[in-house]
Amino acid sequence: MQCVKVLGGVLGAAALLGLGIILGHFAIPKGTDLPAPSASASQDLDLEILEAVMGQLDANRIRENLRELSKEPHLATSPRDEVLVQLLLRRWQDPESGLDSAGTSEYEVLLSFPSQKQPNRVDVVGPAGGILFSSQRSEENLTGEQGDPNVVPPYAAYAPPGTPQAVNAAKYGVAGVLVYTDPADINDGRSLPNETFPYSWGLPPSGVERGSYFEYFGDPLTPYLPANPSSFRLDSDNASGFPPIPTQPIGFKDAEVLLCNLQGASAPAAWQGALGCDYKLGPGFRSDGIFPAGSQVNVSVYNRLELRNSSNVLGIIRGAVEPDRYVLYGNHRDSWVHGAVDPSSGTAVLLELSRVLGTLLKKGTWRPRRSIVFASWGAEEFGLIGSTEFTEESFSKLQERAVAYINVDISVFANATLRAQGTPPVQSVIFSAAKQIRAPGPSSLSIYDNWIRYSNRSSPVYGLVPSLGTLGAGSDYAPFIHFLGISSMDIAYTYDRSKTSARIYPTYHTAFDTFDYVDKFVDPGFSSHQAVAQTVGSVLLRLSDSLFLPLNVSDYSETLRSLLQAAQQDLGGLLEQHNISLGPLVTAVEKFEEAATVLGQHVSALQKGTPNPLQVRMLNDQLMLLERTFLNSRAFPEERYYSHVLWAPRTGSVATFPGLSNACSKAMNTGPGSAAWAEVQRQLSILVVALEGAAATLRPVADL
Amino acid sequence: MQCVKVLGGVLGAAALLGLGIILGHFAIPKGTDLPAPSASASQDLDLEILEAVMGQLDANRIRENLRELSKEPHLATSPRDEVLVQLLLRRWQDPESGLDSAGTSEYEVLLSFPSQKQPNRVDVVGPAGGILFSSQRSEENLTGEQGDPNVVPPYAAYAPPGTPQAVNAAKYGVAGVLVYTDPADINDGRSLPNETFPYSWGLPPSGVERGSYFEYFGDPLTPYLPANPSSFRLDSDNASGFPPIPTQPIGFKDAEVLLCNLQGASAPAAWQGALGCDYKLGPGFRSDGIFPAGSQVNVSVYNRLELRNSSNVLGIIRGAVEPDRYVLYGNHRDSWVHGAVDPSSGTAVLLELSRVLGTLLKKGTWRPRRSIVFASWGAEEFGLIGSTEFTEESFSKLQERAVAYINVDISVFANATLRAQGTPPVQSVIFSAAKQIRAPGPSSLSIYDNWIRYSNRSSPVYGLVPSLGTLGAGSDYAPFIHFLGISSMDIAYTYDRSKTSARIYPTYHTAFDTFDYVDKFVDPGFSSHQAVAQTVGSVLLRLSDSLFLPLNVSDYSETLRSLLQAAQQDLGGLLEQHNISLGPLVTAVEKFEEAATVLGQHVSALQKGTPNPLQVRMLNDQLMLLERTFLNSRAFPEERYYSHVLWAPRTGSVATFPGLSNACSKAMNTGPGSAAWAEVQRQLSILVVALEGAAATLRPVADL
């Protein structure tokens, strides 16, 4: 899991601080290819096979996978990362339980590492130049794993080197940035050693969250091109998206020493935390504190950019009937440290699911209707790099043939409830799967019935349903949905939000995210891992095996109507003042709704009749390709990879179509006839054309 | 037919002339959507039906179509253009011989017209201000048609208004441009009235070639968006691609008066023509000529930009088996004047072919396997506007489903031989059709055997074959191939080049392009029209009805290899000096060749076996989508719509991949490490990725 979208907020806050200490309250978003002649063109989902798969997914095997995967730190491109590449290959090439074929693809990508010779450091320097305080260079060795020589010291990847010292230099007068996670935000306020790991799931005082501070995703030097050795590369001086000033993360124990000794006005209430003092804004230390007057904070960052070879591992089960339709299921492999939760909890599930399906395959019991592609991505933590390079390299093939992408990164944040994000067409298949499986725990509820108790919304069509979240850019689904327009989803088990306000599991990206942490505190017994494996397995089989693709495209109608209503309510008046009509957008949404309704009737008719294989294929092509119609590569020229007109990042305050919302927000304070108002009109036209194109794809195929 | 790509040359030459007269030697480049349950999934091309269609295509009906179509001038959006819209609709909705459905779509587009109140004029003004000479405002009324009040006076569409008078003002000191066509270039030197129409096919001395001087194609105000009434429009002041200075075409009779009285140095030999004098460069008139010293040329241009409604007419025959696969066949409808040759010779063929197919359809004798879409485009002469707006509006649907686009604009330039342009996958189907049909004329050769005598090349694969030309941007195929990546072709009958060096038929875009002109001089008896109808009919049926799509994608191997060899021979040394290796490109071409070979074996195996319908569909999808894989919307950011990495415009001198050729040509004189050399590397990477993507699309679909 990767925190790209956090950065705006973090740097924004940083900009307000003259001293360059940041109150880092992260808001995490965080072979042969012919069907066997005997394969029947009407092959459909086999409920017995589905039941068998559900039954064979084994919590204990997931636990053993996790133990192996998280045994050592496996930072992207490290020797242990390569060992895991071989482990995945071995599993997927196993003659008893492997896939039809598996292989690796390697990219030469720009990563960022701290210097081994010159560790990054944060010091307080007295007026005479003496060092009065130094931050911890590594996390305390509480359970043994933190002492592993392969633990990468805490750092902010892609932050430039430099040694600023309380100087006001950069854009808003910030010379360097320190980031920490406050116990108020991560530990429900607890901060004492005996209240935290290994005594509870809390973050120990020395825990430091690593992360990538690159603004975009993909290899920074090869935007839109796969990072093959021969590919054109930008000079790293010309590459964009790196933080402008040195940045370093520290633990809250060290942050306390700095923050609680600051002078100046009190920070706003929202910035206060649980370190036991009133947080001040500085600049400078208070005279009654531990540092003499004139002391300054010195931040030394020695990060280096390095070209490294990062591997993806890919495996495929060839479809029996439609091998040219791909259901993709992936997770990243690389971690910041041991990465038991992130990402190995997902990889442990991935391996168990591929084992169960591989075994059925090798026994000859089953072969899916469509091809299933399994993926283990490299270098996700640095910016979704492996998955992005894959989409760049396989752009045409995926655009032609990919049915859906399933992502399971962290599979279990906590063991209260399912959490799913996705685009509307995948809602129904996730619901179907969730209704079929029993939730872990003492209740006898289904995953669906349990889920709806924790997170729900009122749908105008269905009534009360679980809430499906939208997809940001927090994991490897981002290039699939935003760059390629492939219907995507992300699935996990997560918190009871009434019991914790932790923004994410507390040891996220620290050296405390270990096997024992998961085994003791996150999911003892691994029943939530098993529940995720079953949910994903069911979704995967439904997508790969159903005669009719279980993508309910008409669920987009509800989304479009709600985005439209927001535009009408919150922007209608403003637009009217500028003689911009929402009429064409209303018409386009209506056309979509109508086409979706007619298509729904067509689906029902086909399902009741005895459709021939081509009729089903034609319908399925409409369902598969709908998501593609929302792409416009010219819509957002400043947003790298983002081309989905419904799910591009929204910075405007109105929760409507992102292009419209953002353009209105920029135009709002400009005069009539400004370029910003022209951009509003351009965005509206782009949207109308996309929605009309989407409706056209859903309409009867011989309509003019 | 439209002369977009001419302009570079013309304006280039203009730049050399201080006086602003141009030696205009144009180098012309120039319902329900379900298959009936009874439709068999194995439905294939029926040779009896094909023979029947060939036999029913009637030269005399084509002649009568042409008479009606060219009866009056039908400039885009004129009342007569709208009458023809209704004529097409009536024909395509005819209960006995019409299509399944037909309709119009209207766009609001920016056109350019001369002022009716203030005619454009070219005068010679004496030193005292008196007018000594005026160019003809209209063509002489030689056959009656030229006197029609609806003949638009000669003008250069989109040239800005202005009244320059021998002043040096614009970039190269040119204040205005006069364009004429020299008898040396259009009439094989003949220039006397009794040597030209109506006594021969030659251009009369008063004939003036109209044309669009817009640099791009599509509606100038709505690039990349369909020009619907509500669409975002650029201010016409912000629109780009219009000529910068007033421009006016004149006849060679008027040009002679100006040119033969110029003084100054002699123009280069290549600029000399057949007006019977030595062409001088000016500036100023010679003292022993007809104009007194100090006389100047005054050009008055009063063109106006106007938003007009232009219609496309579309009709469809629904496919019986795969209605979601479209074979498109179109021509434009609008002409500059009567447009008997351009475009009505093509529309006359289009109507005859739709009648024959429509009759079979309505009788219940035949329904194609795939859908056939017929199109009559509007406002082509102003810049391929109707077709471009259609591709913008239907982008997703066409990208998903279009098998091929067939264009027949001018169907008969002359009656010597077939001429075809297209991308490599369409070569084989055109050859198959051409082998089946007898060439018009006394010989008993097939069209193919006749063609090979006029235009041939030695193919490393096939030996001597007719030459298939490449597609520029001279007609409505441009947006289909360059913007959408749909395999496209343009078909016509044309000259014996040993008998004329006319760059195009002489009355092109003049008021002399009339029915009688065609009937007497271009194709008496209309047998060449019939031959084109048969060729196109056969290509169309083969594409719409064949079980296996007759797109021979492996013919791209030959093209790629030849482009690669040119790069190696003519750029290899230069690239090596700059440490740029062609190795990855060589590998990519080899991968393509290998994938194409393996696919070819797969096709043979399937054709010999008893493939199921989905196996055939999967293969056909590979064939259909190959062309799409060559698109990269980010490859040529400055070239509007061009995104096909093989067929984008080439300005570099080396006849290789356009992006590479152009980038090398710009980099050649810059130092190592320049941005221009980085662009060479970027273009190479774009090309390699596209070719590898193309190879991936051809490889077995379950290959990783």
UniProtKB/TrEMBL annotation, chains A, B:
Pfam families: Peptidase_M28, TFR_dimer. One of its GO terms (biological process) is proteolysis. It comes from Monodon monoceros. This is Aminopeptidase NAALADL1. Residues 580-699 form the Transferrin receptor-like dimerisation domain. Aminopeptidase with broad substrate specificity. Has lower activity with substrates that have Asp or Glu in the P2' position, or Pro in the P3' position. Lacks activity with substrates that have both Pro in the P3' position and Asp or Glu in the P2' position. Lacks carboxypeptidase activity. Lacks dipeptidyl-peptidase IV type activity. Its main location: membrane. The chain crosses the membrane at residues 7-28.
